Structure formats: C-alpha cells, structure tokens
Amino acid sequence: xxxxxxxxxxxxxxxxxxxxxxxxxxxxxxxxxxxxxxxxxxxxxxxxxxxxxxxxxxxxxxxxxxxxxxxxxxxxxxxxxxxxxxxxxxxxxxxxxxxxxxxxxxxxxxxxxxxxxxxxxxxxxxxxxxxxxxxxxxxxxxxxxxxxxxxxxxxxxxxxxxxxxxxxxxxxxxxxxxxxxxxxxxxxxxxxxxxxxxxxxxxxxxxxxxxxxxxxxxxxxxxxxxxxxxxxxxxxxxxxxxxxxxxxxxxxxxxxxxxxxxxxxxxxxxxxxxxxxxxxxxxxxxxxxxxxxxxxxxxxxxxxxxxxxxxxxxxxxxxxxxxxxxxxxxxxxxxxxxxxxxxxxxxxxxxxxxxxxxxxxxxxxxxxxxxxxxxxxxxxxxxxxxxxxxxxxxxxxxxxxxxxxxxxxxxxxxxxxxxxxxxxxxxxx
Amino acid sequence: xxxxxxxxxxxxxxxxxxxxxxxxxxxxxxxxxxxxxxxxxxxxxxxxxxxxxxxxxxxxxxxxxxxxxxxxxxxxxxxxxxxxxxxxxxxxxxxxxxxxxxxxxxxxxxxxxxxxxxxxxxxxxxxxxxxxxxxxxxxxxxxxxxxxxxxxxxxxxxxxxxxxxxxxxxxxxxxxxxxxxxxxxxxxxxxxxxxxxxxxxxxxxxxxxxxxxxxxxxxxxxxxxx
Lengths: 429, 226
Prior knowledge:
The structure holds 2 protein chains of 2 kinds.
Chain A: H1 14-20, H2 25-33, E1 37-39, H3 48-67, H4 77-86, H5 91-118, H6 127-149, H7 154-165, H8 174-182, H9 189-220, E2 236-238, H10 239-264, H11 294-302, H12 306-326, H13 338-358, H14 364-391, H15 401-406
Antiparallel strand pairs in A: 1-2
Helix pairs in contact in A: 3-5, 3-9, 3-10, 4-5, 5-10, 6-7, 6-9, 6-12, 11-12, 11-13, 11-14, 12-14, 13-14
Chain B: H1 5-9, H2 16-26, H3 31-45, H4 51-76, H5 82-86, E1 90-93, E2 102-107, E3 110-116, H6 119-127, H7 151-154, E4 162-166, E5 177-178, E6 186-188, E7 193-195, E8 201-203, E9 215-219, E10 222-225
Antiparallel strand pairs in B: 1-10, 2-3, 3-4, 5-6, 6-7, 7-8, 9-10
C-alpha cells in the first residue's frame, strides 16, 4: 500500500520469512505504518486522522463494556443507565468516557473535514478517498443518534421521535416507512431494541470503511499544506518515527482536553432533560439535538416546508459527495488561493452560526438568520466554488515541498531531512 | 489448472462468452478446452441467442426472486408485531370533563386530545373561510379522504363541542401545547406550528391538520377510540 508501490520490508527471522510467503501481514503493516512516506511538511491539522482512529477504538471498547450492564427495554433502560452510574464498578467513568468520547469524536472529525476543505484534500486524485470519508461521517451520525436514544431520557425519546419523523416527509410511503422504523405506532420498546442492535453494529461498519479510507489514502498519498504533489524522495519522511511521534504528541494533547471534560464537566456537552425519564405524553418545551447536529437542525428548521427542510438538511451533506467536481480550481491548497481562503473562513463562521441558531427557539430573528446562513451554505458549495476556479488568480506555488520548507536557496543542497533530525533517529546519541 | 488461469490473466473480459472463447484458442490439445470450443464457438462468433443464454437468464432471475423472497421476512420483522397491533382501541369516560377542559389519553403509544370546547372556540373555528386554511382536507379518519376541513367535518354532528384528535404534531411528531399560539388552539414548541381551535394547521412548518382518529360515541359519556 505504499505510495511508490514497492515494499522495503525485509523479513529478518525464519518465522517472518515463512509467514511472509504465506500471509504477508507484517509486510503490509510495515509498508503502511513504518516505511510509508509522508510529506515532510504536514502540520498538526494532519494529526486528526490518527486521533480519529484512536477515538473509534476508544468508543468501541467503552461501548462493549457498557453493553455488558445496559438493559435495552423501554421500562428498564433509564434505570439501567443509573445502575451503571451508581452501582457498576467504574461505571460512571466508562459511561462518561463513552458519552464525552462521542462529542470528542465529532470535534476531531469536524477539524479533519475542515482541514480537507482548506487544503483541497478532496481534489483529483483523492475523490474516492473523500467520498469514503463522507460515508464514514454519515455512519458516525447514524451511530451517535441511535446511541443517544438508548438512555431513554426525555431528549432521547423526543430526539428519536423528531428524527424518525423526518422520514414521514417522503411522499406517499412516508408514514409506512416511519411505522416500519418504529415497529409500532410510536417510539417504543421495539424501536429501542433495534436501535441498540444497530448502535452495536454500525461502529464495526465504520471500522470497515475506515480500512478502505486508509487504503485509498495510501494509494494516492497524503496531501500537504502546499497542495504540491510529492515529486521526489526528499519531499517525504518515513511514517515512523516522524508521523507516528507527531500524531502521538497531538493525541496526548487531545486526550488532555478529553479527560478535562470527562472528569470536570462530564455533562457539559449533554442536556439536563436527558436525566428525566422519557414521557411519551409530554414534549419538553425546547427540543435540541446534541451540539454536533445543531447546524443541520438549524437548516432543517430554516425551510418553512416539511419536505423542503428534510431535503435541505440531507442536501447539506449530499453536496459534500459531489464537492470534488464542484470545485473547479486546479490549485489544491487555500494557501495559494487568496479568495478561496477568505470564503473558507466565512463558511466556517456560517457553520458555527448555524450551530448556535440550531440551539435557539425557531422564532423571529433566529429563523431569518438561519435562512440567510442556510442559503449561504449552499451558495458556497453550488455557486461560489464552481465560479472561483474561473475568476480567482492563484498566487505562485513552490516548485516542490522541499523548496517550500527549506526555501529556494537550499534547493538541491545537502539538507534532505528536517532540521535537527538524524537519518537514523533510533541510533541518535 | 490451465482452464482457470486465462480467466485471471486475460484482461479482455470476464463476462459470458469471451471467457470461454478466449481460453479455448490457447488450450488446443487440452481435452476440456477443446470441448468448450466445440460447444461455444458458434454462438461466440454469431449474435443469435442460444439455449445456454436462456439458462443463464433463467437461473439469474430465479436466484433474484429467491433472494427477494428471503429478504422479505428480514424487512417485515421490523413492522408492528401482533402485540402492538392488538392494542387497537381504548374506551374513554368523558363525563368528568367540563366545558373548557381537555384531557390526554394514550392510544397506540400516542396522546389523544379530547377537548370540550367553549362556545367562543366553536364560533371562531366555524368563522374561518376555507381559503385561509393551509391544509384544506379534514384529515378525519371517519370521513372520506377528500372531505374539506370545515369545523363540521372535524367534529361529530350534534356533539360539536367535542374535538378528538391525535395529539401529535404533523411536522416531526412533538406534542403541541393546548390553548396556546396565535389562533388559540394548539402550539407546537418544537418548530413553531400553530393550530386553531379545530386543530387545523394555520401557521408554521407542519403540513397537515392534526389527525382525527377513528372513534365513535358509545353513549353520551363514553368514546371508543380506534
């Protein structure tokens, strides 16, 4: 899977040679995570792929042990979550790690996605890599939604009611689809059970698509902040130790933030109403989804028609699938795109604004602001990006990654490794 | 085995005839390859349909029907089960509800609003011209689907003071709050839909009037819903 297509793995022991001839798994791992060449100029925004991988594993492990104590029944689910919190040894910790972990997962994925938008990671030849990423994102959204339903608090119940009712907007068969999703005439025990089953299944599907995502990445190689393709061996450094250590350092910083929330503000990112048991006869005065869904919720409510709102909400993700063909600019990185760079930050602000508006009641000025932001969101992808490629004059790009890092003067000089790095760091005194 | 190898190494096609036609040329002398050549060479060069084509299509079609038949139980198991379907109707005693009061009862896991309307509310509902209504249909399960959304069609003749509706917002399924909103009827706090005193959508994102379930008066004091 290495980008230059040939393997540098050499089996050292008789067993390694024996295995290499039968199942070259060590070779695959070595070529993918040790000798794999990465651009030498990757910055810290490029560490979130690795962080996401760790977060997925963390959610799987905490989730599997929580499942050992949870009861998926509409009458018992709420109590079983309290049982985890009070009775199970370290149950409070495991549950908070899982709940906060879901939020941190989305923090990381949003940084990862906006990194891709900024550096043009979706452009030729990485379209498939990008689309696989959007599929992972959709699976993540489905997984976290179903997970949020499981504690059977008020927000769980009413969130599930509102989101499943999205499908009732489908003409003709909508009501039948919703009844089918519920397994009844409202969100009830059958709904809880199937969501539990799927909440357990989907992370493994995510894991599968992640493998494809990494495979596609290792075929095309990473982008880098210059957007200039790797041209020679001196543009790259081996994954281990350079990327491994950088990713690990970023992961530690990320885990500090994670731990801060787990130990000091475990409920800050949740909603207090979810500590009230679900009541099918009483809607809380103000229903909001988890923070990471708020921008989509704002888009849903901005459109004054039911079907239109649902189409706009799903459309806001759907545009990401065709993004590689909407952006007509041949220049990848926003660093060399003076106009796109500014519009990128406008989009970031609009997305944050949409998130804030999604947390507000749907009335008065909030609705008007949400409509303006929604319109801008689609304008950015459907109008601005196709036009910018024609009207924007990019600034000069460096001839190579090495030139961008070391400057023109040193081009072709003897410095072929990052400053201060030894050729064999493991032997450095 | 030599018969299988060309299928892998040959880039031309893995479909139907070419697979058989190509290796046959290379496998002169091979008894099995020769046999394949004899039976497939004529239809590989010509375009006419053969019995073999029919067998392929028939087998494929049979397999597709079989797969669909196996898939159906896996899809249908998610539909409401017999125990959910059995909870079809409830009887409600309404004798204790005074004018201007409402109750909520649970039917099929959903709330049903039963309201004894005031004279003022009924007058208001009757005075609305149909052209002003966002949803012109009565949405009354006891009437034909195309019945207009007049106040008469939302109630039972002779008992117009009673309005009985599924208390689920037709937008995304929240429960509207009674006697609130711009029209004095119901207001959904989730996304801001306003319903009037006959439960008809007047303002906001909900597309339909609040649904009226199948129900009947068993006597003056008892309603059977469902």
